[in-house]
Amino acid sequence: MPHILQLVLLIAVLLPATKILASVCTHFGIPAILGELLVGVIAGPGVFNLLHLTVFHGEQATGAFLLMAQMGGLVLMFVAGLETDIERMKEAGVTAFLVALSGVIWPFFLGAGAAHMLGLPWNSALFLGGALTATSVSISARTLMDAGKMSSPEASVILGAAVIDDVMGLFVLAFLAASSSTSNTESFGVANASSYWLQHHAPWAAAHSLLVQMLSISVCVALFFFSAYGAAKRWLDPLVIQMRKLTADESVSSCVLALVLLYAVFAEWLGSVAGITGAYLLGYVFAGSSFKADIERTFYALGHGLFIPLFFVSIGLSSNFRALGGHWLLLIAIFFIAVISKLIGCGTAAYARGMGAVRSIRIGCGMMSRGEVGLIVTAMGASSGIFRAPEVAVMVTVVLLTTLLTPLALRSAFQLKCADDDDMSDGPSSPIEGSSNTRQVSDSSNHLDDFEVPMLLNSSESCSRIEVS
């Protein structure tokens, strides 16, 4: 069968399956995201091993499908940025940083220590601890969107901390890379290229390779966020105005999608952070744009209709329980640490900032999922020979299990009663940073009526919000 037909058939099988199983989950009060993930698990090597059936034999169709799935991650994060409450994100700055810092320190040291106690050498144990540090912001963002909680104080902290978490995870990865014997000559990005050049042309840099790499990453991260945010803030609205003068159908949507992709490339090339961070940053700027409603309408349909379900299916497809063998104790220990370290570490930091017990639990639950960065560290450990097949299987399974658990835990945490929720509905200030400002959510989502999406206005939550069911 031609490769294009293999890809078409693969999408034709998996895409309706995600919607059917998501609808079944919703009917029983389970988050829809779990249905999409379970489709991937069922189709993956642990059950049907769909991608290795004769009809899908070959790597071109599979590779194209996985590329489309990664596009779904970018679109998801752009939509999450669009739905971010900018004022609350600013208020959550210090809290988000402390939550992220605590959410990196606890998993790294607990994970590395437990892995070493269970028989892994220190280099493998450190890599495993590094793989546990970063939160998958895309999973938490989708869960918050599904629950209609994107405008809550907890969402601001979770999303802000997850983005900062990604940058901190980058420094952990740099430390692990410098400590290993792998070469970074093929690494992509300005930071790696400049660090490599300095180490081979300056004796002092060669003698302090880790310090040089850290400094290179710090400078590039700062340059990316400063330049990318400044350019978008200055030129985004004028650029959209020019786009609207084009007579071609959906020209604005096409050009904005191109911007999302460019920001993703720019994030990895200059900032050395995950591409989804660039997509989120662009959506975050669009959240304050006068053209937000038009852009959100298009990307809501494009994302949830095609790309985003494929992204979550691809996560499930990466799981392979058969490779675990007799390493169940390691899996249980690492999974327990992955959950507890974020729940306690991030929750404690939030509580120390005055978020309250219930809201701190919600933040801890929202930070539990692992994703892209964890898989990147896992792949790096595998390619360098530091990870064997069982360790790879353990980490992929932990990523999958935390991805499955996070929506359930976060939705359940929002069911807990919190006195601050009632206070916020009456108008007092958010506990974040002690701000006294209140906010009224603008009714900018009427555009969703075009897609017959039911809207429910619920005034009993922590602040006025629009919940998309």
How would you describe what is shown here?
Helices cover 70% and strands 2% of the residues. It is an all-alpha fold and 469 residues long. The chain has one domain (3-468): Na+/H+ antiporter like fold (Up-down Bundle), CATH 1.20.1530. The chain has a two-stranded antiparallel sheet with strand order 1-2. The protein is globular, with a radius of gyration of 22 Å.
- Termini gap: 40 Å
Q: Number of domains in the coordinates?
A: 1
Q: Reading side by side through the largest sheet, how are the strands ordered?
A: 1-2
Radius of gyration: 22 Å
Name the average pLDDT.
79
> Any low-confidence stretches, pLDDT <50, length ≥5?
181-186, 425-469
Q: Report the top-level CATH class.
A: Mainly Alpha
Major sheet: 2 strands, antiparallel
DSSP helix fraction? over 70%
Total helices: the number is 19
TL;DR of this structure?
This protein has 469 residues and is mostly helical. The protein is built from 19 helices and two strands. It has a two-stranded antiparallel ribbon with strand order 1-2.
Indicate the topology.
Layout: H1 3-27, H2 32-43, H3 60-82, H4 86-91, H5 93-117, H6 122-131, H7 137-147, H8 153-179, H9 190-201, H10 203-207, H11 209-243, H12 251-269, H13 275-286, H14 292-317, H15 328-352, H16 357-366, H17 372-383, H18 389-415, H19 419-426, E1 455-458, E2 465-468
Antiparallel strand pairs: 1-2
